[in-house]
Amino acid sequence: MPPEAQLNLSASLLAKARIPRLTGESGTVLMLGAQYFLQREVSRAFRAQGWKVITVSVKPEEAYIQKLLEAVLFEKPDLLFTVNHLGFDAGGIVTSLLEQVALPAVSWFVDSPAYIMLNHVKAVSPWIMTPVWERTEIETLAGLGFQNPYWLPLATDPELMGIGRQTKKNGMIGFVGDSMEHSSAKWRGIIPQGSDTDDLLDDAVESIQIDRFDHPSTKAIPAGWDTVTRLNFASAVVLEATRRYRHKFLKSLSSKPLKVWGDEEWRKVEHLGAIIANRVEYYRELPLVYGLNSVNLNFTSFQMPTAVNQRVFDAPAAGGFLLTDDQSDLYDLFQPGETAIFSSMEELNDKCDYYLRHPAQREQISRKALRRILQEHTYMHRIRSIITEAKIRFAPKHQSAVAV
Fold first, then answer.
1. Mean pLDDT over residues 284-309, rounded?
2. CA angle, 400 as apex, 151 and 46 as ends, to 5°?
3. Alpha-carbon span 187 to 283, nearest angstrom
4. What pLDDT digit, counting tens, does each position of 228-267 carry?
5. In this prediction, what percent of the chain has a pLDDT beyond 70?
6. What backbone torsions phi and psi does residue 56 show, to the nearest 5 degrees?
7. CB of 38 within 8 A of CB of 111?
8. Contact at 8 Å (CB) between 280 and 307?
9. How many CB atoms are closer than 10 A to CB 243?
10. Do the beta carbons of residue 61 and residue 87 sit within 8 Å?
């Protein structure tokens, strides 16, 4: 069945929908989804730049396409925006709609695209721009057929993080994050079972912990495994490697004033020696925790060979001091003196001791990091760059399409 029939649109109606877009300083953006990761920050950033944001819920699925179609026809958007390709269907109806009405789209990948795009080969289009938070995934997106994917790191919304809040420090080393017990066990339970798989997983975990670029896909995976099994195995390796990493490094701090906020499984970890607190709500509680801790720790997931995660931007924005592991993107995003970095367990322990004793140096680094973030790394900056890039990429394409 052709897309026109599925969408129940006449050719004349589609033709009327092909209007000039991205021609002004501001515009209208269709946001796919409602409560998904980053949508609150991104919506605020668009609105702050004078854009009208129209949210189209992807639930319930049976009503979604009709709602999207109505929004395209009546709201006359300049751009469609989504995160991790949320709202794009495997059958290609949404991509067909974009192409028929000449509507540019942005799908910002902040998670591994190989799994997201599985069985979604029809959800690829030259009308979709794909920034991605991790440099090594640029090749993945290009291999899937997207044109000119590019690196766009995460950022923060300083207002949501409570910028300017002054908090008396608690003298503690703090980590906010998941133990990875449940997620690792879940994915290890999905892959083929047996001692051979266990050995293969252990080997892959050890390798990626030595070299983040040593991806599980490079291992001698059994020839009989299909694509889904291979992707499941890669996920299991990343999660288990991250679980072991976090546990090992936090256990090394057992003699220090350590507090961990997270899931209940942290309470079962032997020899952790930390005060365990419940999970915190991201917008309401997390900024207070970051601002309260004397030292906040960051252990980057092995999903990211080069990228930095949200903590790198959020903690300083919340008035906190962050001691983070060594990721190469840090050196492109910050200048010397704006970050505190550790590269080994020994260095982590030494720097925790040092910074607990030197609050003035913590404050100096945090202040410099915040200044850099406000200058370059807010979601206002990211969305402004997306709008600029979209105009460069799609203006000539759109003029040609509308003229047809």
1. 97
2. 45
3. 29
4. 999 999 999 999 999 999 999 999 999 999 999 999 999 9
5. 95
6. -115, 110
7. no
8. no
9. 24
10. no
Q: Do domains 3-155+380-403 and 173-377 have the same CATH topology?
A: yes
Please tell me the pTM assigned to this model.
0.93
- The CATH classification number of 3-155+380-403 equals 3.40.50.2300
Please name the residue that has the structure tokens 């962050």.
322
pLDDT band for position 297 (50/70/90)? very high
CB 120 within 8 A of CB 85: yes
Q: How confident is the model at residue 398 (pLDDT cuts 50, 70, 90)?
A: low
What is the rounded average pLDDT of the residues 310-333?
A: 97
Q: Which two tokens stand for residue 269?
A: 């970890």
* Interatomic CA distance for residues 244 and 62, integer angstroms: 42
Q: Of 307, 301, 364, 296, give the one whose Cα is nearest residue 333.
A: 307
Neighbours of 291 (CB within 10 A): 23
CA-wise closest residue to 209 among 255, 152, 175, 247: 247
Q: Residue 135, class by beta-carbon neighbours within 10 Å (0-12 exposed, 13-18 middle, 19+ buried)?
A: middle
pLDDT digits (tens, 9 = 90+) for 354-364: 999 999 999 99
By the 8 A CB rule, do 128 and 148 touch? Answer: no
| The pair of three-digit structure tokens given for residue 181, joined into one six-digit string | 């017990």
Picking from 44, 22, 42, the residue whose alpha carbon sits closest to that of residue 32 is: 42
DSSP structure class, residue 156:
B
Q: 22 burial class (0-12, 13-18, 19+ CB within 10 angstroms)?
A: middle
The CA distances from residue 111 to 87, 107, 108, 129, 360, in Å, are 15, 11, 9, 16, 36
* Domain locations along the chain: 3-155+380-403, 173-377
Residue-wise pLDDT for 69-103, tens only, equals: 999 999 999 999 999 999 999 999 999 999 999 99
By DSSP bridging, strand 105-108 and strand 340-342 are unpaired
The third-level CATH classification (topology) of the domain covering 173-377 is Rossmann fold (3.40.50)
**Cα gap 321→326, rounded to integer Å:** 16
Give the ranges where 87-194 is alpha helix by DSSP (H).
93-101, 113-116, 138-144, 181-190
pLDDT digits (tens, 9 = 90+) for 266-296: 999 999 999 999 999 999 999 999 999 999 9
